[in-house]
Amino acid sequence: MRAMVGIDESDESFYALQWFLDNLFPDLSAALSAGLLTLVHVQQPFQPYGFPAARPGVAGKTFYPSTVVADSVRKSQEQTSAALLSRALQMCKDKLIKAESLILEGDPKDMLCEISEQMNVDLLIVGSRGLGKIKRAFLGSVSDYCAHHAKCPTLIVKPPKEASNNK
């Protein structure tokens, strides 16, 4: 059996991982052999946008960030991703569970569904921000999308009651 947990910068994703480790992993430990728990973080691709030049008398000119700026942003994204996955891997290590990590680039909802299918995942675990229907309609929901589009069973772990009341 192979399980995958989606990790992002939200407390809810870490809560989902902790909930899985505390509640389901003990029952699945025989089925999940070493390295079959995968932690996935999907970072948004960096898009260097052009900005119109704001000098008087200069029409039609556009300023694009330098490659130094673009490289700096990419490096910062990589460091953030590594830090998130390091925290998640430490949670697994604290429970004496071996896990692997994966950093992808793209739209999180699409990439989680794609990689779970490519890796023949048996269970996809994602956190839920606890958004209401209106906020979910405008902001979108990775967990809702995965529940409807992933080819494997998807476990959506809701935040604790007191945390969801603060939203």
Radius of gyration based on Cα positions: 19 Å
Strand adjacency order, main sheet: 5-2-1-6-7
Distance between the termini: 35 Å
Summed up, the helix count is: 6
Number of strands: 7
Main beta sheet strand tally, sense and closure: 5 strands, parallel
How many separate domains make up the residues?
1
Order of helices and strands: EHEEEHEHEHHEH
- The CATH topology label is Rossmann fold
The overall average pLDDT, rounded, is 81
Shape: globular
**CATH top level assignment:** Alpha Beta
Indicate the structural class: alpha/beta
Range of helix content: 40-55%
**CATH hierarchy: architecture:** 3-Layer(aba) Sandwich
Q: CATH homologous superfamily - what is it? A: HUPs
Task: Sum up the structure in keywords.
UspA, Adenine nucleotide alpha hydrolases-like superfamily protein isoform 2, two-stranded antiparallel ribbon, Rossmann fold, hydrolase, alpha/beta, Universal_stress_UspA, 46% helix
Short structural summary:
The protein has 167 residues and is an alpha/beta fold. The chain has helices at 11-28, 67-94, 108-118, 133-139, 142-149, 161-164; strands at residues 3-6, 37-43, 51-52, 62-63, 100-105, 123-127, 154-157.
